[in-house]
Write a structure and sequence with these properties.
- By secondary structure, this protein is α+β, with helices and mostly antiparallel strands.
- The protein has one domain.
- Helices cover 44% and strands 19% of the residues.
- The protein contains 6 helices and 5 strands; from the N terminus they run αβααααββββα.
- It has helices at 2-10, 28-39, 43-47, 53-67, 69-77, 129-147; strands at residues 17-18, 85-92, 95-101, 109-117, 120-123.
- Strands 1-2-3-4-5 form a 5-stranded antiparallel β-sheet, sandwiched between helices.
- A hairpin with a 2-residue loop joins strand 4 and strand 5 (120-123).
- The longest helix has 19 residues, at 129-147.
- The radius of gyration is 15 Å and the shape is globular.
- The two termini are 19 Å apart.
């Protein structure tokens, strides 16, 4: 799987690399804090962990209003389920893509985007060329995953 992700990433001009989620420069710890806030329904605290906090709060509020508070918490709580796995983290400079397999039917992969700002990772909610490249990597990886359902993740959740 990691080879497929790097192959997808190398199709673009930027220098991409895989990051081990236990590495000091991983965005995984920041993602876990964000996901805990979301699973608990604390959208204000989650929005503060974004590089566009007002926009993130608006998006989260709209989504919570659409699905309801309990469903919102359930959706984000899935990341903490035993079958959920972080299967890859791809970096372009300070930006990160985290790819999650939530262990659900259809093997749909979820992606999260982070950026390092002043020595800490926050959710990347500002459009950029690098973020678009990481989104394209996620889409290519999703297409590859559809053909490989049932394979083992590269990085087990810790």
């Amino acid at each position: 799987m990691a080879a497929a992700l790097l192959a997808a990433a190398s199709a673009y001009g930027q220098q991409h690399r895989l990051v081990d989620p236990s590495a000091a420069d991983s965005a995984r710890p920041a993602a876990m804090v964000m996901l805990r806030h979301l699973a608990g329904g604390d959208i204000e605290a989650a929005a503060k962990l974004s590089n566009a906090p007002r926009r993130r709060l608006e998006v989260l509020r709209d989504y919570r209003n659409f699905v309801g508070e309990e469903e919102f918490k359930r959706i984000y709580g899935r990341y903490f389920a035993p079958e959920a796995r972080l299967i890859a983290e791809v970096a372009i400079g300070p930006r990160r893509l985290l790819v999650w397999d939530l262990g659900e039917a259809g093997n749909h992969l979820a992606g999260q985007f982070y950026i390092e700002v002043d020595g800490r990772f926050v959710m990347d909610d500002v459009p950029s060329r690098e973020r678009s490249e990481l989104r394209a990597v996620l889409e290519k990886y999703r297409r590859g995953q559809e053909r490989k359902s049932g394979s083992e993740p590269d990085f087990p959740q810790r």
